Amino acid sequence: MVYRRTPAVQARLDAQGALIVQAATRVLSRSGFAGLSMAAVAAEAGVATGTVYKHYEGKAELVTAVFRAVVAREVAAVSAAAASGSAVERVTAAVETFAGRALKNSKLAYVLLAEPVDPVVDTERLHFRHAFAEAFESAVAAGVAHGELAPQHPRTSAAALVGAIGEVLVGPLADGPHGESVVPELVSFAVRALGVRAGAVPQRTGVSDADA
Fold first, then answer.
1. How many C-beta neighbours within 10 Å does residue 172 have?
2. Among candidates 105, 106, 28, which has minimal Cα distance to 65?
3. Tens digits of residue pLDDT in 192-206
4. How far is the C-alpha of 160 from the C-alpha of 203, rounded, in Å?
């Protein structure tokens, strides 16, 4: 007879798995991919190392789970920030939220964007970039449709923006302290790259207050 988990057992296992992912996220935020180990995550979660292995076969699988959880949260934040307003306002909000949240948790953002990782995790990184590009794409498409932005292929422009923003952020994220001008400069670059006329940029300053 095949053993079937009861709903209560499955719920307990799911909760424990979520606890381990949260613990791994905290370890990554402090120590990066290179500093994460299954033992370190177990200690952070308050469980035995063997318990971590019951849920995840190894470090790569665990970090992949972290990527998926964190990216879902961050993409939701960017999408919500860019949900309304003119094309310039939506793109500005998306850039401010994406870059601002990354700079508030620089170690974790560096893992997501650039730190050398296992190939399987690097594949997840590509999904991460595609997900953020989709969040930008709708704003660009709306701007083109309403004549606010120059004619262009929204998906290509959105992917290019995410790639450029990620590349610019790598230095500040790796070095730790960052200049206050990074986010405003990224906003200016984005609206220029999308073909926004001079004077169309909204007067917004500072970084999004959303928590990382």
1. 19
2. 28
3. 999 975 545 554 444
4. 24
Question: Which residue in 66, 76, 73, 59 sits closest to 17, CA to CA?
Answer: 66
Using the CB atoms, write b or e for 3-26: b if 16+ within 10 Å: eeeeeeeeeeeeebbebbbebbbb
- 136: tokens are 């930008």
Q: Tell me: the pLDDT tens digits for 136-174?
A: 999 999 999 988 999 999 999 999 999 999 899 887 776
Q: Is the predicted pLDDT of residue 212 greater than 50, yes or no?
A: no
For the entire predicted model, the pTM comes to 0.81
112 with 125: CB under 8 angstroms? yes
Q: Which two tokens stand for residue 124?
A: 């997840």
Tell me, letter by letter, the H, E, C secondary structure of the chain: CCCCCCHHHHHHHHHHHHHHHHHHHHHHHHHCCCCCCHHHHHHHHCCCHHHHHHHCCCHHHHHHHHHHHHHHHHHHHHHHHCCCCCHHHHHHHHHHHHHHHHHHCHHHHHHHHCCCCCHHHHHHHHHHHHHHHHHHHHHHHHHHHCCCCCCCCHHHHHHHHHHHHHHHHHHHHHHCCCCCCHHHHHHHHHHHHCCCCCCCCCCCCCCCCCCC
